[in-house]
Amino acid sequence: MLGKLKNILGIEGVKAKLLLPVVVLKQSKVIKGKIQLESLSEQKVNGISLKLIEKYARGRKENRLIDEYTLGEHYISGPIIIKKDEQQLVDFEFEFSLLKSEMDEMGDSNLVSRGLVKLAKYLKKVDSSFRVEAAVEVAGTKLNPTVVQGVEFK
Q: Which of 34, 45, 103, 154 could form an S-S bond across to 80 if both were Cys, CB 3.0 to 4.6 Å?
């Protein structure tokens, strides 16, 4: 009875960890990494959903606006069987495309406009951060593990 309840709630279930490079090149347009899965009991993973998300913020104080954009998605279908007290590594690779605002495109055109665009972004406090989210679908579990890791682009 207690074991069944633990399984439904995901207690002592699958633990996930993203293994990603610290810096990803914008030109590559591909994110490669691994997901490390482990469990205290034998578990079956039906699939893993991956997303690259950009958090785009601009403005100051009460005028601050924040939007999130999905830049790439990938689904790893299962079943993946995780044995008791063993680690399993699952490789993944998926494409993404970065979004460019009109201001970014103006900055790419020449050196003078690039400086002006940087100044305008600084004054408007424009900031982007990126993260990869992985949601692991475990059979028989209501609360599936989700793991998030930040990514930096160069």
A: 45
How buried is residue 38: exposed, middle or buried, by Cβ count under 10 Å (0-12/13-18/19+)? middle
**Which DSSP state fits 105?**
H
What band does 20 get if pLDDT is binned at 50, 70 and 90? very high
Question: pTM surpassing 0.85?
Answer: no
Domains and CATH numbers, the chain: 2-153 (2.60.40.10)
* Ordered DSSP codes for 23-88: EE-GGG-EEEEEEEEE-SS-EEEEEEEEEEEEEEEES-GGG-EEEEEEEEEEEEEEEEEE-TT-EE
Q: Which of 53, 14, 50 is nearest to 34 (CA)?
A: 50
Q: End-to-end alpha-carbon separation of the chain, Å?
A: 51
